[in-house]
Write a structure and sequence with these properties.
Oligomer: single chain
Helix content: over 70%
Number of strands: 0
Order of helices and strands: HHH
Distance between the termini: 38 Å
Largest sheet: none
Structural class: mainly alpha
Length: 119
Amino acid sequence: MKQYINEYISSVERIMRSSDKQHEQYTKLLREFEMKIAYFQHERLIHLIVTVLFALLEMSAIYVILVSPNLGAIIFSIMFLVLLVPYVMHYYFLENSVQKMYKMRDKIIEQLEELADKA
């Protein structure tokens, strides 16, 4: 997913930097871009739910360790922590990418308005 998002953002940035800008091309780009933002927002929501679930499981395992320490709870706590860290990192990436896409969308709209004024 990271590679897909990075490649997509790079391709849109290339289009935005190009000197050959046409109103129709930007209208199409905006429509597609808003659809991709919706997909990535959905992906971000799913990862938020999974991340919160693993955080709750980790907190529950820590609580069990504090109440009645045993090897099973410690093993589960370590397993949840090992899974939680990459989920948090991936969610952080998704969040930042979607925020960047919001700013890019604003720039696309700005350029679209400039092209409309020139026409």
